[in-house]
Amino acid sequence: MSGWKVTYKELLSISVQQAFYENGICKKFVTEPQPDFLIVPTNECRQLMKRLDLVFKPIANQGGGIILAQTTTNTASENVLRFTAQSEDKLSFWMVLQNPELLNFNSLPATRDPNKIWYFSNAISDAGAPRNDLHLSIDGAGVDGANDLMIVSGQFYKYHHNTTLTPNDAFVKHLASGALIGAERISNQSGESVIFFDLSSIPSGKCRLIISGADIEFFYYIGVSAPISVFGVIELLLTPSLEPNYRTLEAENVLSTFRPFYTIQFNNRKTLWRYTIELQKNNPIYMAMQAMSAAERAVFINHFKIICENDAAITFTQSLFNDTVFEFRSDNVIPLKEKYISSSTNEGLRLVLKKNEGILGEAVVRDYLPLPSNGLVNASGNPAISDVFLTL
Fold first, then answer.
1. How many CB atoms lie within 10 A of CB 340?
2. In this structure, are residues 319 and 326 in contact, taking their beta carbons and an 8 Å threshold?
3. What is the C-alpha radius of gyration for the chain, rounded to an integer number of angstroms?
4. 157 touches 199 (CB < 8 A)
5. Cα separation of 305 and 333, whole Å?
6. Whole-model pTM?
7. N or C: which end of the chain has fewer CB atoms below 10 A?
8. Section 197-201 average pLDDT
9. Where in 230-315 does DSSP place strands (E)?
10. Distance between CA atoms of residues 125 and 136, nearest Å
11. Which of 186, 189, 192, 191 is nearest to 169 (CA)?
12. d(CA 181, CA 179)
């Protein structure tokens, strides 16, 4: 008997956070949280966790989970993995989307590119990131399509190059293991080439295409067992060569005193709010307008407004009108939220449609206008637009 005490210790934690939600994680709940993502260990991750005796426990109200490791203590009384991790070992997790509406209310590209996947890793250079909030997106401000989307490939990867090549000119390098895969076939024609690779001999992971010694393209090899609905992947490298604050393990498989808490922050989409109000011909306002002179009508239209009664920062301008339709747009973009709270009164946002606003005869036409729905977001333009349609 060695006399070493064997215990399970926290190795790391993961949290997917969303500014849209009131609690920062998921929809408001009474009994059980329903996260928008399932965090699922890949097959390679399951095998590694079995070899190292690690346990992954999902934590729904954290939007992620925790990994526990069987440890011992060394002569310096430090916690050490009981089973040795290699420098190329990595923990990888699929992000499986459970709530399609997330694509509307988060600040993400308007259309989903089937040839790309969201990729998050702890191979980050940000010495200022605190151990309890280590962003896995490239930018500490949050997830960004320009930074965090990566080309994805299945077993067969091909690349079109603008010069002719020989078989020894092109390789794919699996970054975690360093394995090199040569081209299976190269088709040269008209001074250009198409290179074909079979990646089945390597595990899933981030790869680099190298042509004539130069780095050409990074991509993620998804392997042969990824879920059909995979949204993204999280890769946590165990090598101690990472930036000190981002390391999961120190040299000799020692656990640091403060365990890393890795976060993925999705920012809420900012949209212009557009209210389209249609007056039916039996509506008193419509009938009153028909009896007005041109001058009276102009005054009435100019003072027919949407007012935010408890937040002066939110204002609207009438952008269109005719006999039956009025359109109002917010003067600034507003971050979409699960619940809208006034920045000045800390109460629920109150929008009011008024006639004769600011002049004799001022009156409320409709109080507490409905706030934008996540299902009516047009994200194709810049800025995106949230639509609300009302019939009076």
1. 19
2. no
3. 28
4. yes
5. 18
6. 0.89
7. N
8. 93
9. 230-237, 261-266, 270-278, 305-308
10. 10
11. 186
12. 7
Residues 6+ apart with CB under 8 A from 295: none
Antiparallel, parallel or unpaired: β 79-81 and 64-73: antiparallel
Please determine, for residue 375, whether its predicted confidence score (pLDDT) is greater than 80. Answer: no
Give the best-scoring range by mean pLDDT among 4-8, 75-79, 138-142, 344-348. 138-142
Across residues 229-237, what is the average pLDDT? 93
Average pLDDT along the chain: 92
Helix (H) or strand (E) holding 160: strand 156-161
**Distance of alpha carbon 69 from the chain centroid:** 28
Percent share of the chain, pLDDT over 70: 98
Give the mean model confidence (pLDDT) for residues 157-181: 92
Check residue 1 and give its pLDDT. Answer: 40
User: Among positive and negative, which fits the CA dihedral 85, 86, 87, 90?
Assistant: negative
Those residues with Cβ within 8 angstroms of residue 96's Cβ, 6 or more apart along the chain or in another chain: 37, 38, 39, 40, 227, 229, 230, 231
Residue 253 DSSP symbol = G
